[in-house]
Amino acid sequence: MDDNKDEGKKTMPDLFTYLDYRKFLQDAFEELKGSSPGFSHRLFAKKAGFASSNYAWLVMQGKRNLSGDGIVKIAKALGLKKVETEFFENLVRFNQAATESEKGFYYERIAANRRYAAARPLERGQYEYYSRWYVPAIREMVLLKDFKEDPSWIAARLKPAVTPREAEAALKLLTELKLLVRDASGRLAQRDAHVAGGDEVSSLAMTAFQREMIERAAASIEETRPEKREIGSLTFAISEEKLFGAKKMIREFRSKLAGYLAEGKDADAVYQFNFQLFDLCPTEEEK
C-alpha cells in the first residue's frame, strides 16, 4: 500500500476547490482506488488507524462525524501537508457546525485561504455582499436623486455611518460582481432590480445579514421618528396547516411588494423592511 502512496498523491483531487469535506473524501478515495485496484474502505480505515473497518465509509456517507483525532488520522492517511491539514480541519468544522454563527466563523477561515479564494472568487464575493449590511444599502443608494459617487458622502449618509474606506470597498465589490454597472451617461446603475441568492454560502451570509438588520430594526425604535418607521407585532396560536398558509401569504406579499418598489423612480431615501415569524411556544415534539 505504501508503494502506491506517491502514485495516489499525484492524482489527489485539489482540496482547495471543495466546500464539502465528505465530497472531497469520496473523490480522494476513488482516486486512490483507481491508482491501486485492491484499495478498499477497509484498507483506508486501517491506514488511517480507525478501530472500525467501515468508519471512513460512514463518514463519507454523512452517517458519522469526524472528531479532532479523526481529522488528524485522515489527513495523515491522505498525506496532506500542514497547510492542507489546516484547511481540511476548517472544512470539517464548517460542515459539522451546529450553529450558523459557528459556520460563519469557519467559513471566514476557509475563504481566507488564497487558493480557495482563487478557485471560487464569485462565491467569496457573494458572501461579502450579504455579510456586510451596508453593501446592499449602497447598491440601493445609487437610485437616490442626489446620489454622489463619493465614498465620504456615502459613508456619512448611511445610518449608522460607515467609514469612507468601507464605502469605497463596497462600491468596488458591487462593480466586480456586476451588481452595479455604468449607464450611457457613465453614472452607476443597478444591472438588475433584484439580487438572486440561495446557495449554501450566500444563505449563510444572509443569516448574518438578517440578524444584523433585526438589530437595526430594534435600534430604529429609539433612533427613527415614528412617521419614518412602521413596526408592529402580532402574537397568535396557530395550527401547522395554517402556519403553512401564513408563510405562503408572507412570501406572496414580499414578492408583490418587491415588484411594486422596483417600479419606483427618483428615490430620495433607502429603507429596510424585515419579515419576522418565529415560534414562542414550540410543540412537545420539537422540545
Describe the structure using short key phrases:
single chain, 287 residues, mainly alpha, two-stranded antiparallel ribbon, 57% helix, disordered N terminus
Short description:
With 287 residues, the chain is mainly α. It contains 14 helices and 2 strands.
What is the element layout, followed by pairings?
Layout: H1 5-10, H2 21-35, H3 41-48, H4 55-60, H5 68-77, H6 82-95, H7 100-111, H8 114-119, H9 121-131, H10 134-141, H11 151-157, H12 164-176, E1 180-182, E2 188-190, H13 200-223, H14 240-262
Antiparallel strand pairs: 1-2
Helix pairs in contact: 5-6, 6-7, 7-13, 9-13, 10-12, 11-12
Radius of gyration (CA) equals 24 Å
Oligomer: single chain
Please indicate the percent range of residues in DSSP E strands (runs of 2 or more).
Answer: under 5%
Which structural class is indicated by helix and strand composition?
Answer: mainly alpha
Number of helices: 14
**Average pLDDT reading:** 88
Query: Biggest sheet: strands side by side, in what order?
Result: 1-2
